[in-house]
Amino acid sequence: MRFLAYFILIYLSLIFILYLFQRQFIYFPSTIQALPEEYGVPEMEVVELKTDDGLSLKAWYHPAKENQPTMVYFHGNAGHIGSRAIVVSPFLKKGYGVLLVTYRGYSGNPGTPTEEGLYKDGRAALNFLKNEKCIVLYGNSIGAAVAVQMATEFKVQAIILQSPFTSLPDIAWYHYPLLGFKGLLKDQYQTIEKVDQLTPPTLVIYGEDDQINPPKFSRRLYQALPDPKKILAVPRRGHNDLFVPEQIIYYITKYINCS
Fold it and tell me: Fewer CB within 10 Å: C terminus or N terminus of the chain?
């Protein structure tokens, strides 16, 4: 009985610690204040996005050529804005406009990341582009959840979801089933409950070897999406080495006419 009591005490203490510090296990921001020219995209400029809760966030922007879309890129839960330059570079070369967004608490931006905070940052990005008529949302991992939320609030022409998940509790339960952490998460990102509201064509991309966000969650989200939709499973790729710009450009060219 004494052993059982100690076990229960340790177990509850661990859950309590995880509850208190859970966002440190979700968000891994780098505070590096990168510049576009340092990461191979000197054509981009640093711009400021104003959130409705009073933050001024740095982002990188380059306008689109005539009759080309503007892509809004929402990155995942780790790193800084400069490490995403390689992702958007092919779209810049194609003549697309790009707004490369980084969140509160990332890349030297003020604030602390939370689910509602990231949505506020996404709204600031879309409001910055309020005069643009041909917008593509591209979200990676937790950024895919932000992209879906923005697509329920703003008119866009297409959505790209890379390594999307159904909800954050699903991911937490998959990785930590013995901790009972699923119901204790402050940030839920219940993306699967929102996708039935989407009307633009949507492309879902996932790596078949993804160990962080298992493919089953991306496939489940895809099944919940309304048409028109496409899915691309990339063999021998995981969560952090998935890079298929040619397929994305093909999809955008096929489904979007910005003229």
Answer: N
145 CB-side CA count, 13 A:
26
pLDDT at 113: 98
The count of structural domains within the chain is 1
Kindly report, residue by residue over 85-144, the tens digit of the pLDDT: 999 999 999 999 999 999 999 999 999 999 999 999 999 999 999 999 999 999 999 999
208: CATH: 3.40.50.1820
Query: What distance in Å separates the CA atoms of residue 81 and residue 79, rounded to the nearest whole number?
Result: 7
pLDDT digits (tens, 9 = 90+) for 187-213: 999 999 999 999 999 999 999 999 999
What is the 3-class SS of the chain, one letter each residue? CHHHHHHHHHHHHHHHHHHHCHHHHCCEECCCCCCHHHHCCCCCEEEEEECCCCCEEEEEEECCCCCCCEEEEECCCEECHHHHHHHHHHHHHCCCEEEEECCCCCCCCCCCCCHHHHHHHHHHHHHHCCCCCCEEEEEECHHHHHHHHHHCCCCCCEEEEECCCCCHHHHHHHHCHHHCHHHHCCCCCCHHHCHHHCCCCEEEEEECCCCCCCHHHHHHHHHHCCCCEEEEEECCCCCCCCCCHHHHHHHHHHHCCCC
Catalytic residues: 141, 210, 239
pLDDT on residue 11: 66
What residue numbers bound the domain in which 101 lies?
A: 2-255
pTM above 0.85, yes or no: yes
- Is the preceding peptide bond at 113 cis, omega within 30 degrees of 0? no
